[in-house]
Specification:
The chain is of the alpha/beta class. The protein is about 45% helix and about 10% strand. Bound molecules: iron/sulfur cluster (SF4) (2 copies). One iron/sulfur cluster (SF4) binds near residues 440 and 456. InterPro entries: 4Fe4S-binding_SPASM_dom, AdoMet-like_SPASM_containing, Aldolase_TIM, Elp3/MiaA/NifB-like_rSAM, Radical_SAM_PqqE_MftC-like, rSAM, rSAM_sf.
């Protein structure tokens, strides 16, 4: 199926025409690809003859793709009723025109940008990747953010997820959400939910056009959650916020960062969160960055992670709620558990079930870690990184929204090129048969080894690296406590 698709796009004439669709049409005021897609979908009649001509090629590719992926052209056209699907499909076709049909697939623009709009936060979470608290010194102005949103929309980004710090306390968050929606992108937000326990406040976000909300819960009750968040009453308010958005029919994801602190609560949490009526339960991989570096010894062992993912796979079948994980090892775990009546391709953003084994090939194109392919992140000062979990180091910084050309970064940045190549992964990840559906979490590899291509030590295949790390961490801890004792002794002597 992928082969058929590849043959179409490898045809020099088809390739040339597809690339021509990326030019801007003055008459239709859109890139030809978007215009052609709209004509094909019957949403545009009054277009120029060139765009109409292009729509035949686009229609042919889409039709072939739909049949190959086991869906009908009619079903596909129905899905395309949503603006976001059109943007997503445009990005897929643009990716094919720019990068070809390759493993892993690279779309023409990120599907999602996680935008940390402020470092200010009303909590002090022990695992915060942003070490948030106070507002940062060089945060972008609201005008810059609005301009940045325009640029994202123009380059074909499908969705913006506002995060932080805590995005709900930014004074202009509602304007950003409205602007995102008006620009044709999907507005999402990741929040601790504290402020949104108030029904009136949550309604304001819904009225502004928020389509997707992620609310964090760290445990089944306030004991675990409030001690993680270091704010009393945080759990109760987060649950109220979840209820407000579920009642309003908004797409709700509950997110939990799983560590040794709360792993035992996960089975109970699955039931609890399912009963709340949410759409997705996301098990975040712990990544030792930001405040997380202080609790690095709470990271899950490869065995614990693997068992957790097995539980998630099994529980996915019990009800409507999807259980997702940002651990790319979810895909090989799922592959090892495929049975006659259960086959699923887990990704960071959806767990499609499939009936035809040929569709498993799709997993290799989705390709595990989406850093720099499906996602990128923007910091409060406009710095761009492949994913929010990368530390803020020059070596992995891709550029700055204010000073660099966003599309140029997407096409030409060397860090992105490396993240998009599974053949250059090092150690066991490079030799592993599952590298095309997994490839390890590149942010974990970088945070632990200062190398974006290093093995992810969270995998059972990388047990050796995990043990070496554990030894290193306990030696560092022993050294730190020895050092602290020495300082304490010296201070005591000074005062004697
Ligand atoms: S060795 Fe690497 S690529 Fe293979 S399953 Fe483990 S993390 Fe994934
Ligand atoms: S680096 Fe990749 S696998 Fe890790 S959190 Fe980011 S996108 Fe996910």
């Amino acid at each position: 199926m992928i082969g058929t698709f590849k043959r179409i796009t490898d045809n020099p004439l088809a390739k040339y025409l597809l690339q021509r669709t990326l030019t801007y049409c003055e008459k239709d005021e859109a890139i030809r690809l978007e215009s052609a897609l709209k004509i094909y979908l019957g949403k545009e009649n009054d277009a120029c003859y060139k765009c109409k001509l292009m729509s035949r090629l686009i229609g042919y590719i889409v039709k072939k793709g739909a049949t190959g992926f086991g869906t009908s052209e009619k079903e596909l056209k129905e899905a395309m009723e949503s603006e976001y699907w059109i943007r997503g499909l445009t990005s897929v076709l643009k990716g094919i025109a720019l990068f070809g049909v390759k493993r892993p697939f690279v779309p023409g623009a990120p599907f999602q940008i996680v935008w940390n709009i402020t470092k200010a936060c009303n909590m002090r979470c022990v695992h915060c990747y942003e070490s948030a608290g106070k507002r940062g010194e060089n945060e972008l102005s609201s005008k810059d953010i609005i301009n940045g949103l325009d640029r994202m929309a123009k380059s074909g980004v499908t969705s913006i997820a506002f995060s932080g710090g805590e995005p709900t306390i930014h004074p202009h968050i509602l304007d950003f959400i409205k602007h995102t929606e008006n620009s044709g992108m999907c507005a999402a937000m990741a929040t601790n939910g504290y402020i949104l326990a108030d029904k009136g406040k949550s309604q304001k976000f819904i009225d502004a056009g928020l389509e997707f909300i992620q609310i964090s819960l760290d445990g089944t009750g306030s004991k675990t959650h409030d001690s993680f968040r270091r704010v009393n009453g945080a759990w109760e308010r987060a649950v109220l916020a979840v209820e407000n958005f579920v009642d309003a029919g908004i797409f709700v994801e509950v997110a939990t960062t799983v560590t040794e602190y709360n792993i035992d609560e996960i089975p109970e949490m699955i039931d609890f969160v399912r009963d709340l009526g949410v759409n997705w339960f996301m098990l975040y991989n712990f990544i030792p960055t930001g405040n997380g570096t202080e609790i690095v010894d709470m990271d899950l062992s490869p065995k614990d992670r693997s068992e957790l993912l097995e539980t998630a796979y099994v529980e996915n079948k019990n009800g409507e709620m999807q259980i997702l994980s940002t651990a790319p090892q979810y895909a090989p775990v799922a592959e090892s558990m495929v049975s006659k009546d259960s086959a699923m391709i887990p990704t960071h953003f959806y767990n499609p079930e499939y009936t035809s084994p040929a569709l498993m090939q799709l997993a290799e194109f989705i390709g595990g870690c989406g850093a720099g392919r499906f996602y990128m992140s923007i910091e409060p000062n406009g710095d761009i990184y492949p994913c929010v979990f990368f530390p803020h180091k020059e070596e992995v910084k891709l550029g700055n929204l204010m000073n660099d050309n966003f599309e140029d970064i997407w096409m030409n940045n060397n860090v992105l090129h490396q993240l998009r190549d599974k053949e250059i992964l090092e150690g066991q990840c490079g030799e592993c048969n599952s590298r095309h559906i997994c490839g390890g979490c590149r942010a974990r590899a970088y945070n632990y080894f200062d190398d974006i291509l290093a093995p992810d030590p969270g995998c059972i295949n990388n047990q050796k690296e995990w043990e070496t790390l554990k030894d290193r961490i306990s030696m560092e801890r022993a050294y730190e406590s020895h050092h602290e004792n020495l300082i304490l002794k010296m201070e005591t002597r000074k005062h004697e």
